[in-house]
Amino acid sequence: MTIPEPARALAATAPMPANDHPSAILALDLGTTTGWAMRLGDKTIVSGTMAFRPGRYEGGGMRYLRFRSWLDEMLRQSPALGAVYFEEVRRHAGTDAAHIYGGFLAHLAAWCEQKGLPYEGVPVGAIKRHVTGKGNADKQAMIAAVTARGFAPADDNEADAIAILLWAIETRGGVR
Asked: With CB atoms 3.0 to 4.6 Å apart as the test, which of 125, 141, 152, 161 could cross-link to 135 if both were Cys?
């Protein structure tokens, strides 16, 4: 699988629970730097980050158009995609972050509906509790927990996406 640039693919060395479902699963930590992790149909896990910062001469909606194009490319690369999970944020520290998250969430929901893909938000506390044992774990604890499972996240965004994917596989069997 060729992953869209500038994303970085990592194969997981950690053993995954048995699951005979052939569908790929996409997990997202939505934001200007979106963390992503995907379990492919062959159970290989790849992950990375994708930046959606607006360019100097772009309108405010361009980041969302690039996000949708990136989602289309992810689907082209893994047509067996069967479910999408994302971090469901209920509280933001700032207004800008809330607006940006809401824009990504709206586009993700519309894209999933258009493609007929099931999607589910996972509360932040549930993700943190699942991988660290603490619902209020900080960024470093999340990175450490994911690293302990055999992954090498570049930052907290990628670590969160991997944690969402692990939650989906281990609690939902990866499909909705």
From this structure: 125
